[in-house]
Amino acid sequence: MTRTNWLPRTATWALSGAAAAGAASVLGYPELAYAAVVGGAVGATGAGVLGYRSQQRAMLMQSLEQALAPLVGDRSLVIARRWKGWPGTPAKVIVTYDPVAKDGDPAWRQAVLDAVQRRLEVAVSVDQHNRRKRRLVMTTSAGSTANPAEVRVQRTIADLLGASTRVGALKMNDAGEVTSFQVTSIPTTKVAASGGYRVKVERTFGTVHQGRWRCKWDLMHDRATFEVRPPFPGIVELPRAHVDPAKDVLKAYDKVSIELGVDEDGNVLSWRPAIDPNLMVVGAPGTGKTVLEHSVLVSVAQYGWPIWIVDGKAIEFLGFRDWPNVQVVASAVEEQVAVITRAHEVMEHRYQLIVQGKASEDDFEPLMVFIDEWSDFRANLMAWYSATKVKGMPTKPVVLERVASIARKGRSSRVHLLFATQRPDAEYFGGDMRDNFRARASMGRLSPQGAMMMWQDPSIGTTVPRGCRGRATSINDDNRAVEIQTYWVPDPRKAKRRGDDEQLRHLDNLRPVEALSRHSRLLIVPPDDDKIENRGAYAAWCEAAWVPAASRPDLDPLQNEEATAQEARALASPMAMFGIELPALPASTASEDEDPGWDDGEFGHEVDVDPLGLSIGDLVEIEPNHWVTLDQEPEEDPSDPGLVMLCWRDDVDDAGIHAIPLGERIKARTAIYEEAA
User: Fold this and answer.
1) CA dist., res. 307 & res. 220, Å (int)
2) CB distance 166 to 117 below 8 Å
3) Do 281 and 439 form a contact (C-beta atoms < 8 A)?
4) How wide is the angle at C-alpha 200 spanned by C-alphas 197 and 201, nearest 5°?
5) What are the φ/ψ torsions at residue 578 (nearest 5 degrees)?
6) Which helix (H) or strand (E) holds 86?
7) Could you say which DSSP state residue 114 is in?
8) Across all residues in the chain, what is the average pLDDT?
9) What pLDDT does 577 receive?
10) DSSP character for 61?
11) What is the pLDDT confidence band of residue 677, given thresholds at 50, 70 and 90?
């Protein structure tokens, strides 16, 4: 359709008025000259206004014809009648389509309606449909202008999934923004053939409509539901556990649920010790592993369970030494050996009671044992054991096997383990040991080999954003790996040191009620020199006596006078070891730990590669100095075979698609797969 050329008509009227005015003046009729000028101006204005309106209407009809052409055929005729408004909307649209149109398809008529509605931006309905004459008459509803956001959604879906799709069940927020909708009559075969295509649809829609969208595909019924993906919260404070202090601790055992965090929908993921007796937590420094352990400790304490802690780094649990129901925090390797040995003895003793018929599993009070930083503990243990081992002792310390024994047999005796390490390496954590920890959480981003050890899948947990502290991967009730934001609990020692009243109030709210603060602190009495000389240090510490802390204040570290910040700086100075005094540095408020950065050891050097050879978890540079992680396997674009789709996710949890021509190369750093030890 040719655009209406209205400018010459406008100019003609204006020039004609001017010419008539000039002629009237020459002929001596000035009054006619004025009338000629006014008449020319009015005519020019009218011609311009009407001409511009006609042009806009013609352009709208041209756009409508182009939108309808794939549905009604190139030889179709589209007529609009009874225009209303400025530039106007036709009250009736008549389409005479050619024989190629699939007017027998139930979805065809709706597709035509959707196309007309998208272009006219008004609600449209079918008035008449004569298949013999191939004539479709549609009317627009007066005063029912379609919501622009709704029209835009319909247009985007038609572009992504085809004109035969229908959009319905839209939900909108108070700001008039679409938050969810349903799409029917989707091209199921095309969608089912490629998981990458489904991701492309989701992410392209999110790019166009500026949001984190997800789609639930119901391929059985040829439909899909799109919805705005709720954002993960940055920090989620641990809520107080719902514990009834009047209930018997033993009878409530089966109901104990330790909340770990929430997924993006706000669903709480929990650990049920009665079902899965042990919990494994893996995470690199700075990912929030220790904070998750603290939250588990606080939750367990609220149920009145006794807690024993092996602090592999010696300092991560010092703030909980006076926490209710925390009986011992072992920082030195000798004490740590004593704790594991005594926990194993508790387990074996309970098994003997069952065998002798003196007790049953329901009679045992749960015992929670934390083993933090397993690799550090193991390294310290091996060094100490080698230095103190006496003739006749095993090559390796028996305590290592005792940890594995507790993991295997602890459930029936209600001795539970929380096992934490930076990496689930086979050297420290073999398959038999790992399989006894069905409840797991991996903090932050895993390497492919770490994901394989942790989840038996090299892709799970490898795309977690590095900039989101406390973000973890765990297993939900459907046995599916999901991302969660773990609960946050401040460190009592640091909160007290900094004088952070808000954090201290939060901690006070998490303390167990008095009725469930049942277990007092214990101290491990160092064996005397004679026993160490006769039995060896390892055996002597395994047999060390445990006493209430109140009975041995001389051994209680909590009785030590706390140094001021200024004094602590002086004591911690490297020069203090040499007796050299330096001017004291001014005390400052401590800051939070730095966010973790890239671990370059996980990836190879930057190279130009064929994108089709990349895998989930690899890094690619989509813009200068903007490196992202692939979270889907690369594949050719089903809708454009000349392109390769790279679905990505970055460190601040943004996601998108980067397309490059087939055959081109891209800068990448591929994940390094280490051989299992």
Assistant:
1) 50
2) no
3) no
4) 90
5) -105, 10
6) none
7) H
8) 83
9) 64
10) H
11) very low
Angle CA 408–392–386, to nearest 5: 75
Do 223 and 240 share a structural domain?
Answer: no
Per-residue pLDDT, averaged over 219-225, amounts to 89
Token output for 217? 């595909």
Angstrom CA distances, 72 to 94, 103, 127, 186, 594, stand at 12, 9, 17, 20, 62
Same domain, 199 and 263: no
Nearest CA among 458, 487, 459 for reference residue 472: 487
In angstroms, rounded to a whole number, what is the distance separating the alpha carbons of residues 84 and 87?
Answer: 8
Which of 487, 514, 541 marks a domain boundary? 514
48-57, 130-139, 178-187, 346-355 — which is least confidently predicted?
48-57
**SS3 category, 95:** strand
Predicted confidence at residue 603, as pLDDT, reads 75
Q: Name the residue among 505, 473, 506, 502 with its Cα closest to residue 488.
A: 506
User: What pLDDT score was predicted for residue 118?
Assistant: 74
Contacts of 448 (CB under 8 A, 6+ apart): 458, 459, 462, 615, 617, 671, 673
Query: Which of 514, 536, 558 lies at the terminal end of a domain, its last residue?
Result: 514
User: How would DSSP label each residue in 519-543?
Assistant: ---EEEPPPPHHHHHHH-HHHHHHT
pLDDT-based confidence at residue 316 (cuts at 50, 70, 90) = very high
Task: Dump the DSSP string for 267-306.
Answer: PEEEE-TTTS--EEEEE-TTSSHHHHHHHHHHHHHHTT--
Residue 660 lies in a domain: yes
Both 305 and 346 in a single domain? yes
Predicted confidence (pLDDT) at residue 108 exceeds the cutoff of 80: no
pLDDT at 666: 92
ω before 239 within 30° of 0 (cis)?
no
Q: Is this structure's pTM higher than 0.85? A: no
Average pLDDT over residues 125-141: 83
Closest by CA to 524, choosing from 499, 543, 502, is: 543
Question: Structurally, how many domains does the chain consist of?
Answer: 3
Judge if 271 and 408 occupy the same domain: yes
Among 493, 445, 447, smallest CA distance to 469 is for 445
**Any domain includes 473:** yes
C-alpha span between 35 and 650 (Å, rounded): 71
- The residue ranking higher by pLDDT, 369 or 48, is 369
The DSSP call for residue 55 is H
Say yes or no: 165 and 260 in one domain: no
* Rounded Cα distance, 572 and 522, in Å: 29
Task: Find the DSSP H helices in 73-147.
Answer: 106-120
Average pLDDT over residues 229-251: 87
CB 268 within 8 A of CB 491: no
Residue type, position 570, single letter: A
Domain of 172 in residue numbering reads as: 71-228
**Whole-number Å distance between alpha carbons of 580 and 662:** 67
- Is residue 185 a contact partner of residue 166, using CB atoms and an 8 Å limit? yes
CATH classification of the domain holding 635: 2.30.30
Task: Answer whether residue 4 is part of any domain.
Answer: no
Cβ within 8 Å of residue 255, ≥6 positions away = 274
What pLDDT sits at residue 598? Answer: 42
In this predicted structure, what is the pLDDT of residue 329? 97
- Closest CA relative to residue 107, chosen from 181, 163, 158, 190: 163
